[in-house]
Amino acid sequence: MAELTLPDSRRCQYFFLYDGSKVRGEGDPTRQGICYFYPEETPSDKQDLLCSQLAGVGRCVSELSSSRVSTLRLRRCKFAIRMKDDFFWALGCSVDTPTVSVCELLDQLIDLFCFYNGPVRTSYEVNSQETLAARWTCFLSHLLPGHSPLTYIFSCLRTMDSTNVDPLLLLKAALILQACQRCPLVLAGCILFKGRVVSTQLSPELTMKVMVHESETYNKAQRTNGTSPPGSFGCAVSSTGVFLTPPELQHLQSPPVNKDSSSHSTPQKDAPPKRTRLSRTLSDTPSSESEPSDPSSSHSPLKLSFSPHLSELDSVFSPAPTQSGSPTCSPPPPPPPPSSQRRNSHEAQEESLDESCYYSFHDSAGGDSQGESFAFKANPRLNGGDGSEFDFSGPSANKTMSGDNEVCCRSTKGHMTEVKRLTPPPQTFGSNEKSSLIPMTLYLHRVNSLVLVLLVEPHFFSDTASKEEVYHSSLASLNGLEAHLRTISPAAPEPPGQYLFAHYDCIQNTLATNVSGRAVGAPEHPFVRATSLLHSHFCGTETLQEAIIRSAGTAVYGTRSVAQETFFQQLGGPPRNSGIPNHQDSAFSLPSKARHRLLKHGVNLL
Amino acid sequence: MKCLLIASESAEILFHWTDQEFQQNVQEKYRSSQEEGEGLPAFEDIISTLFAPIIISCGTMVYRQGDSYTSFTTENNHIYVLCQFDECLYIAVNGDGEEKEDDLRRKLYVMRKITEVMFGMVTLSGSLLRKELRPQDTEQRVRLWKHLQSLLDTYNYLRENDQSFLVEAVERLIHPTLCEQCIEFLERRLVQQINSSSQVERAGEEVLHTFILVHTKLLAFYSSRTASTLNTSDLLTLIIMAQNMYPSNVELDEPSPEVQDAESTSGSGPESFYTPEPSPSSRDSSSSAEQPARGSTPVFEFVDPDIQMAEDSLHTLEISPPDPSTPRRVFLELKDGQLPMVPHSMYCLPLWPGITLVLLTKVPNIQLTRSVYSFLEDFTKLEKCLNEGQAGSGAARGQLNMHNTRSKLDKFIRDLGPNELQCVQLLNVWTEFKNRAFTRGGSGFNKDLIPLCKSMKTQLCSLYRQRFLTESGSADGPRCLSPALQERAQTMVQEKLMDWKDFLLVKSKRNITMVSYLEEFPGLVHFIWVDRSSGQIIAPSLSITERTTSELGKGPVAHYIKSKVWGLVRTTRQYLRKGYSTVTLRDGDFYFCYFLWFENENGYRLEAGDIPILPDDSLPIGMLGYDYYRKLLRYYGKNHQGEAVKCYELLTVHLGVIPTEIILQHCRQLASKLWEPSRNPLL
């Protein structure tokens, strides 16, 4: 009955991909089937043992239950298992990681692989095992960050601290993205700064995937340039081929705003004069005070942007309403023949990884001022001249796919997230994954630490006009945004506080917390442990709204709604208690304390 | 879709229990993989074939990785739980969502507990247990497996329907006057009379404990002064066994109004109404429930007679029921675990349907257990020493111990009388051991001695088995209390309780009513209070059957609340396992609270201590299969030396609209209100 604490800092103990089709006969060595094994330094007999035993037992249990195995637990390690065709994935984590989190991590890992490499079977036919092994390692290192113990519980996006950033900057970023979207070949995008999301139009899952490539190219660029910041490298555009699942594509092709809540007439009246501001630099952006009072502005509460201000402004600014009047809809791009496309994208991707695809529109001397002037030149054309092209076939004009479908999709998102945790996402393991993945291209435009990432149609890069247009229309604004973001001083580290909290937004996949990534055993440890338990409980019990749990030394309060989970612990040692029911007990005042204290972090628990 | 099986290291199925659905499912699987025209092999062979890869892989992982599987889940939410107990692998499967992982693990521990109570120290030897669980003789095997299967069925039913088996604590009938009278009666009349009857009549046995069960609830419990206390784990297992022999049919034994009327008017007639006639034939039928033929009487709601009959092909074999007056041999723990698995005889005497008298007697030659156990411990220690390769000081110390053991074992074998075959075998192995270990020419204490250690243990266990498990131990038939004596005991208690029996049967359904608490605690829906030091539960009745209406009414609401209570217990155990002794949850329209705390004997609240944090797949939290709370009390008591520490638990279900402060106030008041009646010691 001794206390069991795991000092293991490496929570992911094993990850492997095993191809059962390569080991059919009695004499076939297990080794042949092992496509990838992490950690790679594991002795090969141990690799063989784990792969053969786990895959064997997995198959046996699957046959008995007529269903794939999803988890497999040993006394010292718990594995999330995915089986598809003859492939067998296993991700082993320490036993104190919540099972839902391990499963989620594995799903993300596989999704990530498919996003950049396409279907697993074909990518193993096309590429060498070593190349793909390097990619698995890369993806794994992205998904297993060590910066906070909480990231093992909530797989979340790292975002700018919205309490520390001028909301206008966030608005600015959103506007840049919308401006880019006016090119019909651009589906959607996001803006990242120093590995954190500034603004995104993509779903959290897609944003996460996109960020991996960004930080990879960033790291490589830094390595090639020594330690100097990539500022000397100048503004660079790169691209890589990616693959989307049909639901992802469908989601992207639906309009960015909630159609039900945006009226058709008023924005059309207001929009034209304001649309000229779309690409203006920050100083020209209208002050935020005037906007909320605008009676015609409408709310879209579940928008995928981060600042609450934006929801109001966007509906006014968004080009979508003007387009919504147009009856023409561009159908979703017909998926090109998979084989040729696949090869193209593979080539593209490999090139991008080799950096041979890095091309720059300007010399590094180009600097900010030159960029500005380009942007100004580009403006009239964007807003006026070629308006017809944008107005009639913007990507958000796919009205057929949107409407009620979209609304319903968003409002049930919270539930979907829960459901998804319990069962693996169907799109990844659909019966015909091979044929269903749709090739797309990722466009990256870097300005120092700021990156604009856009998901574009594969032929975007052969369309010089569109390419230049997107580039020029965004360059000045990106430079401006970068300059402003750069000057923001990092939020002062909070003094060792009176309390710990974690606020998880299930819709946006973001986490706000004051728990820092310190060594295990720090005062945060009990909080992390309680949070992990409560999170699992919340995931498993839909009706559970709030909980207080207390051990001899710690009391933690957890509460959740459809969209969020919040955890709170008062520090400073609660007075010792007898454990007997007592209404004067400090533990039971946690809900009111949490409500009070978290307001200043922008968390409203009322 | 449920299954439980025990397998040996060589993937031999030692026991299996499956429900109809699982069996059909598995047979389908097998048929589809088979070629046309081939007949379906025996179910046991199918299950053995299908599970073999799992069992073998389990062994490989233990051997090569030093780790073992504890559970699998599949995408359609089937759960597999695996536990290794000594040399046997226990596997439980659920595919219908009715049981969670914790329930399955609990079931495995309960199965293990049942085998311990039934086979005692034989469970310590893998090879002997294998023979015991899987007798060569088919008829014997069928009978044993049927018995074990029906025990598991009974346990499953109780865990799903009886609060005392949900929280694993004993529930008493709350009627102080009657309880006191009964205890006095058991002491002054019953036990005294049996124990003072002639040696021949009671075959050298002596009644140690006796208790009266009304369904699963305890009316009275008396232990003779010489007996050591019976622990909760054993008592709960005995209740399962008694329930299995004389299942209380919830649907049928509720006295209908007409019967009650008839009784109240006629006055003298009713005793023959429920009393089974003492003729052997009717007794056979009353004990038939213990045997597989239970299908003919719809014992439990969920058993469809046809399904039950079709469930196993083994049904086709005719099994002669054992003589009902033959006691069950049970192995119980003495002295708070210091002396485990001491043989007792258990007599279950039905008084009326639903009311049972249980006698536990001490069997002769009990001191043999103590010796065998201490030798087994010595050899286990030595084996461990040798395995770890402690050649130097460790082995030397082991040798010292072994010299002591040597003289004791020499004397022990001498006293046994060398004529029996078993003793000869033991002596042979012991002589070989001595030659190897102690003589100059021998190899001394090294790893070569391990096989001999093992076979010494096997010999000791098999001696124990021969003495306490095989009925042919004595030439003059089974030794037990004479049937006449048993009958006398039965009649005595029947006479005593005659006027009370209907009251008792009703009382057992309405032991505590929620309505008596409502005025004081408005908004309270349900509560469970457990004294873990004595293993007692106090909770309002929650029985929901088709015919009777509980206080919660019947239908969906009652079932919903029941499922919430069951879920709450499961949840709080998870938190307790992680060291959280206070939990409050707002779930839907309800507010749940759970508290665990410690007090000293005078009711003074002790400060909450750290509770050990256990991994998810560790032993189940409860008292039946494994006594977690005894361990917890010991752990906590380390810092409270010289004080008797008590441990209490309180669970409450309130309506969510009640303000939290009021709820907490309620909990506090309830805790102090319930504390009082529990001061009467249970045992």
TrEMBL record, chain A:
GO terms for biological process: melanosome assembly; protein targeting; vesicle-mediated transport. Residues 251-268 have a biased composition (Polar residues). Residues 247-354, 386-406 are annotated as: Disordered. Residues 498-595 form the CCZ1/INTU/HPS4 third Longin domain. GO terms for molecular function: guanyl-nucleotide exchange factor activity; small GTPase binding. It comes from the Eukaryota. PANTHER family: BLOC-3 COMPLEX MEMBER HPS4, HERMANSKY-PUDLAK SYNDROME 4 PROTEIN LIGHT-EAR PROTEIN-RELATED. Pfam families: Intu_longin_1, Intu_longin_3. This is HPS4 biogenesis of lysosomal organelles complex 3 subunit 2. Residues 281-310 have a biased composition (Low complexity).
